[in-house]
Every structure is written in structure tokens, then in C-alpha cells.
Amino acid sequence: MKDTPYESGVFRLEIVIPDKYPFEPPHVRFVTPIYHPNVDESGRICLDMLKLPPKGTWRPVFSLAGLLTSIQLLQATPNPDDPLMADIAEEYLYNRSEFEKKAREHTKQHAFQNVAC
């Protein structure tokens, strides 16, 4: 994602399509570690589109391409109001330069190694 701390990183996702798809959302997680307020250490992603109503917004008309675009948008613009990682969300809100520095370093450490895959 250009102009983000994740720029030039390669982030792998695991996508599991449930038997009831498209009536249930796919299960998606980051395999590549990422420093992000909406992604926990196991790669789980906090995104309403990945949850069924009433807590989420998943609809059977949503495509996998649209879901991946939403994950990219979340990566570029974190939602600190609904974090999985409260400490990172706080840093994002109150010390953005430190957040960007750590996210950039984390990306270099974990996401650059996947370029050759």
C-alpha cells in the first residue's frame, strides 16, 4: 500500500471458504505478522464485513475481491475505535509517528522476507 508504513511489504492471507458461503463470510487472517490495531498476534482481523449481522455487515452479494479490497483499505486506514490491539490503537491515535515507525520496522522484518515466495 503506497504511502503507508506497509509499503513494499508482501502480506499473505489465509482464506477459508465455509460450506455455507456466500451466506456466511469467509474466514480470513493474516499469515504474515503485521503491526496494526485491527489485527491481533494470530492474524485475526477486526472488520465488520467479516461478521454476520447483527454484529457485522456481511451480505451474500459481497465478492471475495470486494472483501480483499476492504482489507486493503483497513490496512491503509486503521480503525482505532474498534481495535483488537488496544495498545497499538492508542499509539496510532496519540503518537502516530511512533506507530508508523514501528509498523514500518515490523513490515521490514516480517513482510519483506516473503517477496521471493
- Determine the strand fraction and express it as a percent band: 5-15%
Strand order within the widest beta sheet: 1-2
Succession of helices and strands? EEHHH
Helix content: 25-40%
Structure summary, number of beta strands: 2
What Rg do the Cα atoms give?
Answer: 14 Å
Structure description:
- This protein has 117 residues and is mainly alpha-helical.
- It has one domain: Ubiquitin Conjugating Enzyme (Roll).
- It has 3 helices and 2 strands; from the N terminus they run E-E-H-H-H.
- The model has no long low-confidence stretch (mean pLDDT 95).
- Belongs to the ubiquitin-conjugating enzyme family.
- InterPro entries: UBC (IPR000608), UBQ-conjugating_AS (IPR023313), UBQ-conjugating_enzyme/RWD (IPR016135).
- The active site is at 46 (glycyl thioester intermediate).
